[in-house]
Design a protein that fits this description.
The protein is of the alpha/beta class. It has helices spanning about 1-20, 35-55, 70-75, 90-95, 135-140, 155-170, 180-190, 200-210, 260-270, 275-285, 295-315; strands at about 25-30, 55-60, 85-90, 110-120, 120-125, 150, 175, 195-200, 210-215, 245-255, 285-290.
Length: about 325
């Protein structure tokens, strides 16, 4: 009888605590340095989340190892709802890229929902003789073994897009990894490398200024952004099935109580409809998610499909990090 009474008291106490969540600031871990695209998304989202969640939100940048250090920190954090993760497509590519992960992507997190998708563009140095995708294909065929493809480093969006592009085109290129998008773009502008596939957040300004040549977008539909609206998709250009976006999602440590997850998910859905948040994301070239992937279970299914998509591509390329 005493044990039953203690269990009942404990259950009531836990219920009361959950009802009062959040009682203190909530930390969102960003697995990259401050100032980058993911950090920007997180800070914009934090602003939109504060009111519906009813909490002060702190952004903590935990960079390193392609984002996996930040992922690990949250996977091992207390599962009380006060430590969350905002991560990008790296959640789905890390299992293939890193052999010694300290967490399991599908088992060690609670999935809260997807936030946005960022399109990508295929661009080239301004001195390339090709002026459209058809001409680019002819140029690539005539220059097999001589083409340099830049990326921002192992696991970066540009690296993943480049891998898929090479596989789809069946053209071997010399992959040139850099320590970030900045140096990669600098060499592309200087003509030291030929091509790069990167997020609109990094390429739109260069395209608008005419400093690079743009050949296509990686989405299944053309973009509405004025500077990119005339660019064809790779799909319509003949590269069937090509669809790459850099998405962001939110996660909590495994075992976080369902009432807490429900509160955070409800607040997330409100935040994703915030006009200011939508406007800020559109300025980055990002599309805010409005479909069922804002639900935790549906986002998890999406991530699992992404793992199955990228795993074979990465393994076929033989590009790993220990």
């Amino acid at each position: 009888m005493k044990k039953l009474l203690l269990a009942a008291v404990a259950a009531l106490t836990a219920t009361a605590a959950l009802a009062e969540y959040p009682e203190k600031p909530v930390t969102i871990v960003v697995p990259f340095a401050a100032g980058g695209p993911t950090d920007k998304v997180a800070r914009d989202l934090a602003e939109a989340l504060r009111k519906p969640l009813g909490a002060t939100i702190i952004i903590e940048n935990v960079g390193g190892a392609g984002g996996t250090l930040g992922h690990t920190k949250v996977a091992k954090a207390a599962n009380d709802g006060y430590t969350l993760l905002l991560a990008h497509i790296g959640m789905s590519t890390a299992p293939a890229l890193y052999r010694n992960l300290q967490y399991k992507t599908l088992d060690d997190f609670e999935y809260l929902g997807m936030v946005n998708e960022v399109p990508m563009t295929l661009i080239g140095r301004s001195t390339l003789p090709a002026n459209n995708f058809a001409e680019l294909v002819k140029w690539m065929e005539a220059n097999k073994g001589k083409i340099n493809l830049a990326n921002a480093g192992l696991g970066a969006a540009s690296h993943l897009c480049g891998l898929l592009f090479q596989q789809s085109m069946k053209v071997d290129m010399t992959t040139v990894p850099y320590k970030g998008t900045g140096p990669a773009m600098t060499d592309l502008l200087g003509g030291q490398v030929d091509l790069m596939c990167d997020q609109t957040t990094n390429t739109t300004g260069q395209i608008e200024s005419g400093k690079v040549k743009a050949f296509a977008v990686t989405t299944t539909k053309r973009l509405s952004t004025p500077a990119l609206a005339k660019l064809p998709t790779l799909e319509e250009s003949g590269v069937k099935g090509f669809n790459v976006t850099i998405w962001h999602g939110m996660y909590a440590p495994k075992g976080t109580p369902k009432p807490v997850l429900d509160k955070v998910n409800a607040a997330l859905k409100v935040a994703l409809k915030d006009p200011d948040f939508i406007k800020r994301q559109e300025a980055l070239g990002a599309v805010v998610i409005t479909d069922n992937r804002t639900n935790g279970a549906d986002h998890k299914k999406f991530v699992e499909a992404e793992i199955n998509k990228w795993g074979p591509i990465i393994k076929a390329a033989g590009q790993y990090a220990d």
